[in-house]
Amino acid sequence: MLTTSTRQKTCDLATLAIDLIDQAGCEYGDIRFCTYRNQTLHAHDHSLSHLTDHQKSGFGVRVLLKGAWGFAASYRQTPEELIRMVNLAIEIAKGSRLCQQNPVRLVPVKAYQDTYITPIKIDPFSIPISEKANLLLTINDRLLQYQEQGIRKANSYLQFNQENKLFASTEGSLIEQTIYRSYSGYRCTAVANGDAQSRSYERPPLNLGYEHIDQTDLLSQIERVAEEALEKVYAPKGPSGIQSTLILKPTNLYLTIHESVGHPTELDRVYGYESNFAGTSFATTDQLGTLQYAAPWINFKCDRTQPAGRSTIGYDDEGVPSQEWYVVKEGILVDYLTDRETAYRLGKSSSKGCAFADSWSSLPMVRIPNLGLEPGPIGGSHTATLAEMIADTKEGILIDGIGSFSIDQQRRNFQFGGDGFWQIKNGKIVGMLKDVTYHAMTTDFWNQVDAIGPASEWQQCGTNMCGKGEPLQIAQMTHACVPVRVQNINIGG
């Protein structure tokens, strides 16, 4: 939260900006004052290898003049600089009109005067650096107790973020938000048998305070992670050039959801406004309401109100309140991820609130919200626990964690790896594998899911490093999901 004096100064600047934008005859305008604090600690083996704790702040002004966008930003938060940036944004909008084919139009949004703060129990920045460093070194020391068996490297990390944002618009909104985010994990590498293999564990990135850094949980997983790294380095390589049944844990499935459902349903990517980082999308608007994206028992739901979700906020960067909606309902593509501009082009009456900028100096763009796979209903014909899926599989592979991945320029064809792999035979896990990859066409993959986990196995996995745009912007989101079983998937090759 801003101090009272700082908030008043910022509100005065925001009022000045909005008045200037209105006086210039713009159809719309907004301003964001943002302050970001980021703290990261990394430990490598027996030493703290990386420590940053920095803060940056500034403001960005966006105007829509005669159907064209203009944007300007600065770190100097003074009346003189603000006036200069508003005028610059207006001049840029005038220049943009010279090469613009179609004018920008926006769906309406109500005016909001509100405050949102991430509910936390412990401010992560109140914990001494020494305590955090000692936790990481303790983790590494315990991992390296397996050095004689073959563990050669240990790495651990902690990441904390605080974002303060004040948003004002010509619609009449004045919204102040404070977002907290926490993340931790570790990795060890076994070297033996002429090979090197790693295993990882993380407390997933979530919008929580230091209470998310559960030391008991982190320390209790060390023995398992080290032993699995050692087993993995001696394990046989996975099969290649065959089809197999896959059982995917949420720790692996979330990235598949991210790449094959999240990005293809970003409406700016569908329209071709955005084509960096794996291109546009096959899920075009002429297929809305008809495309059999997944099996009829599959539902993908967006929810920016999800407690602790990595993209959970009160409002997006256009002042649109957070909400929830389906993008795939009973297997059918039913909606997209939109901001006010793309929603208007689609013919919708309102935005889904997906506009986000990663900095005061960045333009908002459509970003994936919390997007998850709904659990199977109790008693559903395709609902099964992870244990039941394994017991019901004659031959297959169980995958945990994420590895390498790639996807084509329309998000049709993908390949994913993982971090841990186990061979299943006659309903039992018979040992680890290594170097397994699976690949499929997006709609084939999701239509071949024949079992999904119940709500009791729902996990909030996700990413804090989703890149999009040029210049690059980074966003974060949760892909809460359950285990699934998928039939006849290509392995390796």
From TrEMBL:
GO terms for biological process: proteolysis. The keyword Hydrolase applies. Residues 245-492 form the Metalloprotease TldD/E C-terminal domain. Transmembrane segments: none annotated. Keywords: Hydrolase, Metalloprotease, Protease. GO terms for cellular component: cytosol. Belongs to the peptidase U62 family. This is TldD/PmbA family protein.
